[in-house]
Design a protein that fits this description.
The chain has about 210 residues and is mainly alpha-helical. Helices cover about 65% and strands about 0% of the residues. The longest helix is centred in the last third of the chain and has 31 residues.
């Protein structure tokens, strides 16, 4: 049983470390933070840099916590949060099956994380070494509930951002000749886009007739 839980922690935690560092640092063939942020923006998770950083940190730290068996309920909650966000934003509309872009794999990973929170990381873990191994149904429920709260926070942040952008009034940029507007040139040089007032035009016409006379 100890070895089984160690293998599960190593598999789930190790791969999540890889996913997280792909987003944050571009390791293991990843794109890095800026392209990841653009990808998150495309999913409606704005500001993308905040969501990508949070997801990368949750995957990296949560994965490391599971791998080492350190503060396992919190590590599990981090994984659950990322998986629920992925289901909500990407996979839910595709149904359950992975070959159609569905959410079955995300559910399996979240369930594995909750199971480790409930069973405890086992004797081959830092929690056990410190004498602070947590286990039991309440810890499993805690990891699921805390993960759900994290996913909900990400969702409401994105929705509030989208609402603020839609509600922002559009304003036309003001221009002036002193700050980059059309230049006003005195004398005989014509000003681009400038139309002389009626009084000025009449004065010029009168002067022209007088000179002809």
């Amino acid at each position: 049983m100890k070895v089984g839980r160690l293998l599960l922690r190593a598999a789930v935690g190790g791969f999540f470390i890889g996913h997280g560092t792909q987003k944050l640092f571009g390791w293991f063939g990843g794109q890095g933070l800026k392209p990841s942020a653009e990808h998150f923006e495309g999913m409606g998770l704005k500001p993308g840099i905040v969501h990508a950083s949070a997801a990368g940190a949750a995957e990296t730290l949560g994965g490391a916590g599971l791998l080492l068996g350190y503060r396992t309920p919190l590590a599990s909650a981090s994984i659950v949060s990322v998986m629920l966000t992925a289901i909500n934003r990407v996979h839910l509309k595709n149904g359950p099956w992975a070959h159609k872009g569905g959410y079955e794999y995300n559910v399996v990973l979240a369930a594995a994380a909750v199971s480790l929170a409930e069973s405890g990381p086992g004797g081959l873990s830092l929690d056990a070494l410190r004498g602070k191994e947590k286990s039991g149904a309440l810890w499993g429920v805690f990891s699921l509930a805390a993960g759900a709260v994290g996913a909900a926070a990400a969702h409401f942040l994105a929705e509030s951002r989208a609402t603020a952008v839609v509600a922002a009034p559009e304003s036309a940029p003001a221009t002036s000749s002193a700050n980059g507007g059309d230049p006003v040139v005195a004398g005989s040089v014509e000003t681009p886009g400038y139309e002389a007032p009626a009084e000025e035009a009449a004065s010029e016409e009168t002067s022209s007739e007088a000179s002809e006379a």
